[in-house]
Records
---
Amino acid sequence: MFTQTPLVRRKQRNEIIAKWIFGAMAVAMVVPLLLIIFHLVSRAWPLLSWDFLVTNPVGGMRRGGVWSAFLGTIYLVVMSLCISAPIGVLAAVYLNEYARDSWFTRIINLAVVNLAGVPSIVHALFGLGAFVIFAGMGRSILAASLTLAIMTLPVIIASTKESLAAVPVSFREACWNVGASRWQTIRRIVLPNSISGILTGVILQVSRTAGETAPIMFTGAVFFKKIPEGDLFAYNLRDQCMALSMHLYTVTTQVTNAPEALPYAIAVILLATVLFANALSISLRVYLRSRKKW
Amino acid sequence: MTDAAPALSIETQDLSLWYGKFQALKNVSMGIKNGLITSLIGPSGCGKTTLLRCFNRVNERYGYVTTKGEIRILQKNIYDPDISLIELRKSVGMVFQRPNPLPLSIYENIVFGLRIHAEGKLGKGHTDEVVEKSLREVGLWDDLKDRLKGRATGLQLEQQQKLCIARLLPLKPEVILMDEPCSALDVEGTRAIEELMWELRGRYTILIVTHNMAQARRSSDESIFMLMGELIEHSRTEDLFLNPVDPRTAEYIEGRYG
Ligand SMILES: Nc1ncnc2c1ncn2[C@@H]1O[C@H](COP(=O)(O)OP(=O)(O)O)[C@@H](O)[C@H]1O
Ligand SMILES: [Mg+2]
């Protein structure tokens, strides 16, 4: 009675092997990330300082800091999300809550999925054609932000739809059955219970927007631009701007005799910006989840 | 015509319903008496839920549903063009198989309906009163009065189901539809809900779907037996269970269908 058969022993052995393999994979995910961060920071160390962040590059971009590029990236990220987040969220609410299943909504859904997979260089060319040339915006922060917005829009729609769909249908039924309209249902029940997921999806796009070079290269980013230091409103939306991703690209490929630490320091600033946004999103998510009532 | 309350709360005339090509209800004609508890029995898939969902017109949310025939609730045809779905659903409340309290506090669950229909802000005195009255009506007041701000989804299932009933009451419904309201509950919970139904009897017309025949027998005035989308028999509960007219009813009661 209750003794181990060979079959049970074999099962147990497999169980242990499986556990170790999966565990090793999980570790394998984290190790490279930590190594990258360590490598970047240690190489960048001699240059990292507050001054590096808040001074313009000088001396053919070999000395000074990254201020104009840093501020440019902030402008591009904030502007593009200000455009794509509201449109994306509203579109997703329509698709998930209002639209009936018809060929029309199916085409929209198909377009969303496919647009999310289009390479960024294609968005860049579209932005160049549509905003810079056709709409006559010229190369500007506005045109670059619109291009980035077009790039992030489908992803925001998809992630928002997913968050909305995660709210149980039974909640909606409960609302309809006391005579709530669709908008009342959305406003009082659906949105409050999906807002943390929606925000997370939007903020995750910060890293994409900050990291891409291609879409802004033709539509609004320049190699070099000097702006007043310490002025947060130094750029005009019709101006071109510098951006961290582009700056990194320039310094590594176009500038000779740059200090060895410079590209690493730029990368650290870029990475820190993105990680800061992600940390913000995580804490927001934790906070909102803690207020959730189910 | 007198102004007295109509004898029949719900009447259907040759009601048929199709899901696409599949006919789920076949020429159902019946009358549900005002203020009584009527139970709807029949094997799984015979159209009980479908019938229930006709009465507050939720079936229409599926684009592929077609309905024919007439439904009158309090002598008003609910397919008339001047019917407001919002008003209809206010007076025809529904309780589901799985309790589905909203992810709000207990208090807010109960005033949810009022807030939805109110034109401006509701005074706190008024809502406090409504909450107490509704909770007392379903017998939850003593248990819950100290944690009205607590989460409704954290309650026991039985309490959740009672709360779902209490949630309907502030809207002063005429009819309460219950779709197997006890199937997620244990014996105790089932008994509590049945007792509650008796408490509410007379003030509301209650139509309850159940596939628990003992429950139908214990807790309803009249019973309706359905089979494959058709209404087979409708009579007083004792009569239906003791002297069924149709042989198919007899077979079902004896337990020959699932
Ligand atoms: N939304 C739906 N779409 C298509 N068919 C459905 C739908 N709901 C129910 N049906 C079908 O209609 C019939 C009756 O279902 P239902 O009313 O749920 O039965 P019951 O509640 O008596 O078990 C079943 O055959 C079921 O498969
Ligand atoms: Mg059913």
Note: The beta strands of chain A are 57-58, 63-64.
---
Amino acid sequence: MNSKSSAALDISGLSAGYDRVDVLRGIDLTIAPGEMVTLIGANGAGKSTLLKAVVGLVPPAAGTVSLFGKDITRMSPERSVREGLALVPEGRMLFGPMTVEENLRLGAHTRDAEEFAAERDRAFELFPVLSERRTQSAATLSGGEQQMLAVARALMARPRMLLLDEPSLGLAPRIIAEIFAALETLRTGGLTILLVEQDARLALRHADRGYVMRTGSIALHGAAEELLANDDIRLIYLGAWRGEGE
Amino acid sequence: MGAVELLQFALAGLKNGAIYALVALGFTLVYAATGAINFAQGEFYMLGGMLSVWAYAGLGLPLPLAGLVGVAMTALVGGVFELLAVRPRKDGDLLAIIIITVGGSMVLSSAARHLFGPLEKALPAFTSTGTVSIFGAVLEIQSLWILGLTTLAVVALWYLYNRTSLGRAMRACAVNRDAARLVGIDPRRIVTVSFMLAAALGALAGLAVTPLTQTAFDVGPSVGIKGFAAAILGGLGNPIAAVAGGIVLGMLESMSIAFISSTYKDAIALVVLLGVLFWRPQGIFGASRREKV
Ligand SMILES: Nc1ncnc2c1ncn2[C@@H]1O[C@H](COP(=O)(O)OP(=O)(O)OP(=O)(O)O)[C@@H](O)[C@H]1O
Ligand SMILES: [Mg+2]
């Protein structure tokens, strides 16, 4: 871990849980600036909990999290977003009764009013359909449009590090392709990305590296091609994922 | 009953309804931010009148300034109340918060009694003690002030909610607290601001009413119940519906006096409260349930 201080995100020995339930047990995970890393694992492995612990929605019990060399362990989400960390949460968590435009404005809550328009136009460039839906309430968007809005809202804060929790969930292949194309564009633009995915094959095809999580700890990690070729992964996550329902 | 008489009752209902609307808005604001009912809301109404009287008679400030001081100080009390009594309850347990506000309301009214005495206090009418005639019915000029100030407050609140970053953040918090935090909104700040606004709205009502009815340390609870009933009638989630709930309640009270007897006026709010809770817990303006994605 000599690259520790230069890592975009460095998670070390992180444990966390809910009330009396321990979910995460000593997670180590590092992402270099500009990397796209994916985190895969079965339902209930603790992927979402890890993302929540990183942004501060769930308080870590032990371990550290640092973002571009700055310790952000136990920092509240409202502060960590100001440090350049944004999460596209599981289930999107949009502001349903509010319009697309308002959702984007809220995404830019930490930014100056002048910066908003430029940021919004960038988001519309990435997801043109959103500009047609500007005045429509988020709750009335299609699932794909909602996911695009969730990503766009997170981008409004101009994060340096973007966490995404299952952005492909329940979407048609064409929409998934569009969202992943946007992620590629963002990565090319220098954004560092941690992507939690249920669809391991899809995720590993896009990511540089992957981590496999099993019941609260990291079981395996490596280059994406290696994991794609790994027999255990093929059996457990690449063969079976179709059968796992959503 | 003649048309003029009926109009007379309707005007009285409208005036009282406007007061209930302001108090109900306070309930709605705090509910949106915390999910809890603030039973100290009636005390903000009381403090608005009492502190304005103190600023006017005690400090000798001119009436408009005294009113401003009364409302602003009540808002401050609301904020401090939240910081000292509600915020320390970090887990946000709703029942605990509700009980804290009940206790807080007793503290506030005893403090007012201590500081200002047990006697009724009055303020002069804002502009004139005269009346205007509307199709033969008579309305105090002060009631016009009440209606005007309520309208102004509603418009200001609408503007805040829909046109400002703070208002958007308040709505976002009500829709999804975690999502609001993820975009950088501190919900604790929203809760404090909501208490302050709720206190200011209650205080405005108490101030506007004092020239007509006088005020005292113990006027809070009864108005609190009526504002609460109005808020429940409107479904709690929605400020516009809370205003409508207030007007409807004021009208119902007036009509009960007109057609039944004034004996039951104060029971109307309770009947409405129980009726809505039994048969239509989402309020009479149905679709006000909060949508979530
Ligand atoms: N709010 C909560 N309170 C208590 N337990 C929770 C809570 N959220 C998740 N858990 C538990 O924590 C464990 C990990 O859940 P988590 O959501 O992190 O898994 P996941 O890997 O994201 O699963 P999925 O792929 O289904 O999204 C599960 O056993 C779950 O039941
Ligand atoms: Mg999950």
Note: Residues A 18, 21, 23, 41, 43-49, 90, 198 surround adenosine-5'-triphosphate (ligand 1) (CB under 6 Å).
---
Amino acid sequence: MQENNKKYDAIVIGSGISGGWAAKELCEKGLKVLVLERGRDIQHGVDYLGEHAPPWKIPFANKADRKRNVDDYPIQSQCYAFDAATKAFFTKDSEAPYQQDENKPYHWIRANGVGGRSLIWGRQTYRWSEFDFKANVEDGHGCEWPIGYDDLKDWYSYVEKFVGISGAKEGLPELPDSEFLPAMDMYTLEKTIKGRLDKYMPEVTMTMGRTAILTENLNGRAACHYCGPCPRGCSTGSYFSSQSSTLPAARATGNLELRSNSVVEKLIYDSNSNRVTAVQIIDANSKERLSFSADLIFLCASTLASTQILLNSKSQQFPNGLANSSGTLGRYLMDHFKMQHVAVFADNLDHYYKGFRPTGTYIPRFKNLPGKEQTDYLRGFGLQADPVRPDWRFHFNQKGFGKSLKDNLRKPAPYWVWVLGAFGECLPNANNRVELDESKHDEFGIPQIKVSMSFGANEHRMSKDIIKSSEKIFKAAGAVYIETTDTLSVPGSAIHEMGTARMGKDPKTSVLNAWNQSHDVPNLFVTDGACMASSSCVNPSLTYMAFTARACDYAVSQWQQGKI
Amino acid sequence: MDRRFFLQALTMLGGSYATAAIAGLAGSSQAAAKPLAIGPSIDELPSDLFSEQERKDLSAMAEVIIPRTESPGAIDAGVPKFIEYMVQNWLSEAEQQIFLEGFRAIQKYCLADFSKSFSALHPNQQLDILEDLEDKASDSPWYDFANVQRQYIEDAPFICQLKELTIFGFYSSEVGAKQVLRHDPMPMQFDGEYALGEEDSSWSMIRTM
Ligand SMILES: Cc1cc2nc3c(=O)[nH]c(=O)nc-3n(C[C@H](O)[C@H](O)[C@H](O)COP(=O)(O)OP(=O)(O)OC[C@H]3O[C@@H](n4cnc5c(N)ncnc54)[C@H](O)[C@@H]3O)c2cc1C
Ligand code: SF4
């Protein structure tokens, strides 16, 4: 193996949402930083190959490329954001295999390239609340969080001012307000619905989706131009991605080195110094093994990938994976469960819209909170809602020919559909876990992970209430036809995978301390979703950002004081 | 197939995050990849499945489905080329066979009964032939409320395949998007109260994600 003599102050593994933040913070504090990213380089703008492609330029008129999807993207192609114009960002399942428990399918949705999933994410950004951080200790599921909302509050503000989040203040303790740019407008239908909910279901708040999209110019990034399909990339930087935001800030310091096509295989641990002394990679092109060293190691490869690296970093001291003296590494995997319900509305048919608003509205959790309805399950759910005015793609299969067919297809349907997408909190459970499957390797010879996860009784009880509550909301909102489903999403497919290297107070039952620092190995930090000790019901990435910025601040001060 | 499926499928096509193919854009070969926006249009991709006569007949059929009226029709929009490309490159072998058999059966029938090719028949005769096919196909699940392209109906009869490809080709084409639908690629604003007049078309591209 080739050793690289250049020594860095810090190595960041992964360049997605968490890694981008770590790179920015560490570089801005003056550290020499190496970012190791397994995927290809993706240049801002230049490599957004699907951006602004008009419908007539999209292969097969954007009908799914069934053959290739089955061969190369059997799992990724099930993601809503996957299509002909976005698929170049997604990881080919055929090239990055993992194992699933036979009876428990798990969808691992990935975008292994510079920027990670920040290029294709849904940009929904919500703070966690004090209730979220207290949930474990109150109901006894999972371990106690070592921090509370107050510890993170200022860090939320700090990252939000840089990210740029459009949204509306509501003053709800269960969904604390962020630092907001102006909220986007609601559709007339949404205003109608909101008016009815205010009247008939006052316990429910309907607010504009809080979204990492600029409604005003910010730091050289332009306000959104409402073109619509964000996951194709956004060369104006109007939504937050590593490319548009954190990596340029890191680069501007002159302290950043980013090495793409660098698959981290393992971390090398030295028991004498009790430190990670090197990061071993395989160059994806040359297949050559190389190692790099630094004082601080930030593991930000995303929940499952970070834990894979730790599990694969075995030593005499840590035979079951690095930083795993507790034996909890790999356990307590969580993902929100998703359910979708739809209803038809006959209101505001003479209203349409101009511009493609790249977000929806949000109905925050309104159960099992002080002063709200208490139920037969623990914790709660939030609802993301979208209006759709169906077009020709929903009616192309009507009978008839000629002028009347052409004219029918040309016009919007004479109804609206309003979709409620529920995200339910998932309890931490030791049996939901990821392990290494030593009998199966990827093309680099790295053992694959095996994921085993299913939703439990609490999630299923909650799902019944989600159906009931959605029906109630639809009725109050004035729906003329309602369709609910009782299926819970396949674990993983909410793409909010969390846990497996959880934070906690007790080194015997957790992997990381209150600063995202390994209890066992002080120069090792994990700041992506792996650190989460519970899952809340809101989208998690904003919280990873706040954790990352906070951990960087702590690590650098410790490092400067010679304590790490 | 049920209506639930239809409504669920809306979530794939419509809203943003909560709800919810590449000939030129091969993910792996980065060097060769070009932005889709400067690539070929869907009616410019080459195919060599049909003879000149077959192309004439296919064009006539597409034009019966979406004719030129006060606005352009299927032929103006390049739909026949799109159909040929899709039949050759997108349909599975079994689907392609259904298409070709159905297509050739009409051609044979026209020659036998009228001693003319389909394209040489009077528009009313052409319409009768296609309507007759639709009558015979009308119990196909292709006509179900639930069929919204999420799943291609693999055993759909020829007439259904023909209509689906014609309609997708037409409303996705530049001509269809700009002259029949409304195309607004750079709206610069979002107005949620924008009025819809009785004669107004849909936007050409309703896909936020
Ligand atoms: C379609 C979609 C919609 C989403 N919507 C939302 C939303 O609305 N709100 C929200 O909060 N979250 C959303 N998410 C989730 C969000 O994208 C993730 O939570 C977030 O990207 C996680 O950040 P991360 O840095 O931990 O991981 P990623 O962004 O996935 O980045 C990890 C990086 O590490 C690299 N890496 C992995 N393994 C290795 C290795 N061995 N060596 C070197 N590098 C490695 C990867 O290539 C990748 O670049 C969505 C995700 C998707 C896919
Ligand atoms: S809708 Fe806005 S944020 Fe999304 S890609 Fe277009 S300009 Fe960028």
Note: The radius of gyration of chain B is 19 Å.
---
Amino acid sequence: MRDIIKIYPNGVRANREVHFGIRSGEIHALVGENGAGKSTLMKILYGVERPSSGSIFLRGKSVHINSEHEAIALGIGMVFQNFMLVPSFTIAQNVVLGSEPMRGMLLDQRAAVKITNNLARQYGLVVDPTAIVDSVPVGMRQRVEILKALYRGADILILDEPTAVLTPQETRELFAAIRQLVNAGKTIIFISHKLREVMEISDRVSVMRDGQMVGTLHTSDATESRLAKMMVGREVFLQLDKPTKERGVAMLQVRHLEYVNEAGREVVRGVSFNTYSGEILGIAGVEGNGQTELVEVLTGLRKPVAGTVSLGDHSITGLSASAVRLSGVAHIPEDRLTNGVALNASIDENLIVDRYNKPPFSRAGFVSHGAVVKHGEKMIDQYAIRAPDGTLPVGSLSGGNMQKVVVARELSANPKLLIAAQPTRGVDIGATEFMHQQLLKQRNEGVAVLLVSADLAEVMSLSDRLAVMHNGRIVAIITDVRNVSEEEVGLFMLGVKQQTQAEIEANW
Amino acid sequence: MVDTPAITNSEARVHERMRIRKERVRGSLIDLVVTLGTIVIALVVGFIVTLAVGKQPIAAYTALLTGPLSQVNRLGNWLQDATTLILIGLSVSIAFQARQFNLGAEGSLLVGAMTAAVVALYVPLPPILGIIVPLLAAMAAGFLVALIPGWMKAYLNANEIVSTLMINAIIANLYQYLLINFLTPEGDNVRRSALLPATSAFPLLADIFNANLGRANLAIVVVLIVVIAVWILMRHTSFGYEIRMIGANEKFAQYGGINTKRVVMLAFAIGGAVAAIGGVHLAMGVHNRLILGISAGLGFEGIVVAMLARNNPLLVPITGLFYSYLRIGGDIMERTASVGAEIVQVIQAVIILLITAQFVIEYVRTRRNRRAAEAKL
Ligand SMILES: Nc1ncnc2c1ncn2[C@@H]1O[C@H](COP(=O)(O)OP(=O)(O)OP(=O)(O)O)[C@@H](O)[C@H]1O
Ligand SMILES: [Mg+2]
């Protein structure tokens, strides 16, 4: 790709004369801060965005890629971070979707299953072809996306932040699959904010900053800190400074909480714990073990079927999301597109949804435009949201920058209890560092923080106590997080080990 | 390896910001050109339709396009028609902004007309108050009546299209019943109320300018005030913010602590109050009494006006005037060029469709926004 320039209709220059080249058979990592233009560049290659100028050469020939179909015809496939699968279809149906094997007028189910099984075996991507997508874990859904691209004949496979949603185990499996793909002659482009992964898997790395290509180097010549410096333009400190802190009162008390989902499955089963002021309680667990639902019940987005939740001395069991918020709970939601932002509203408007009717934003029912804009500017600055100003709709921000808008709002809300679900998912290292500092700052100021994250390293380094969920239950509460290994937590997460009820209750 | 410096210093950022501002101004200019272009194309298509059906297509089309301006009294008709349309358009736009498809303007308008007339007829009032008191009473009545479908939607999740249409039907019958049985004076063989007292009639522009301006009246001043009030409400108050956030993403609004039920209910009710002013204008400005079929379906035409204005209160007067122009022009075309009323409606529909198509595209685009955003993460 040569001299690629992309200016979005709203004037944002996402790519500025970018040169980018990949060699066949390599694993090429693409890194850069949020909004650097990585996804844009890849969407141009995949034909879903058109460059404002520049040219693309494939195997020496100049090509014009005007649509997804043309990209697929050229052997380019892409897996977006939020999957585009049909949730109610089986895995096999999803894999063949778009060019289905037919028998008469109907989809040939058996052929679809066979195709899926063959592909899966060939590349070591284990899936259950007859399972409904909705019922399988994220890791498997991702493998389905990859299989789908392979089925359509992809030789070059673009993976946009594939590991952001994966657990360490799943990431390891994905990497094994990627290696197998490369052995089979495929070429991989891999986007990630986790430099450790980049160092582990890639042959070469390209670094983008502010829409420009800073450079490409062999991974063997790179170090994490060097890459970080190229991305951010300054040194980044990945070490956290965490002072000891006496915890305060039990701000959040959860007792025997039960939740049954729409499909009638018990996903939260008798969960009890406390979160104290001035502590960070981490919740670890393989995704899909009830953490998501637990958080949504606590924050009023779902209704529990049994059990109690109280905040301080007040019961907040079964209250609406608004009522929970008004009683002093801030919430960084996992499903940010549904709950966390209004895509068509501006950054400024998104940043005040919990405080538009309080001073200084509101006086006698009127919203002070000046205060709103000033607040927006402050947040954009502090959280390094990559946007020219706060009037831009949130929908036109890059993925990581949308997340920053949500985090900026919730961390600046002065809550009694902060519930953070996957706060740094998809966020670049500079901003992750800043968010970690802010989470600790909240704790140091006496806020009760409940942190749910699929990133085990993150929960383990931030938490004062760690609760592990498995199969809808809390199977362990670890008080001495410093002296427990990732492996041991992993055993709890997989349900291999379990504390006794008495041990858990002692640590509520 | 080349290491190119990236923009980080603030001077460059300010520069970037200015560039983007310019880009946006250019963007809105393009928008404007596209809109004007669409109108031109729509008019051409309308002409082709006229060609296909008319005996004297050119004369007929000229009547449609220049009719409202050709005589002073037609100008008056236009202003008077637009006054009601703008009020209804504003009413509809409020609920639309919260993504509520409120079709209750027709009913609210009738309630407003009835309340204003009854107060004017039975409460002796001095000048000025003779206008203000019935106006406020009508607004209160419109507010209360529209509260019903609002409450049903917010708290019972009843479909607002069904509930507002049903309430419209009830009100229409009630209006007729009250008018025929209680308000038609003894001995009058036309079913209509007595004339309202002079103190409760909006002064006519015809009297002020001494020209034959038909029934156009000083209610246009009220319209100006209402336009600005709705604009302030929607853009500068917390209530307006709440409505807009609910319209942008209701789940987000809830999550953020907005009492979405209350806001949705009030959005209906405030819309009802505004539509009631349209009824006041008809009763106290245009007819000076209540007549059967006083609304003449205007309640529904307001939807088009709001859509054309993309629910922007400041654009509603413009689109209201535009749409009303087409209506009056169509009337004149029908009368002078002997083109059937149906054909006039077809031409109007074509024009409106073409213009709305532009907005439909935009609507689809925002729906796709979410998918695009998901892909971007
Ligand atoms: N559809 C769009 N309309 C307008 N601007 C956009 C659009 N998509 C992206 N942008 C802008 O282009 C820039 C680059 O975005 P891009 O999504 O390529 O970033 P990224 O490097 O993938 O970041 P992230 O790590 O956060 O995913 C950002 O400033 C973003 O605001
Ligand atoms: Mg991206």
Note: Residues 34-376 of chain B form a domain with the ABC transporter involved in vitamin B12 uptake, BtuC fold (CATH 1.10.3470).
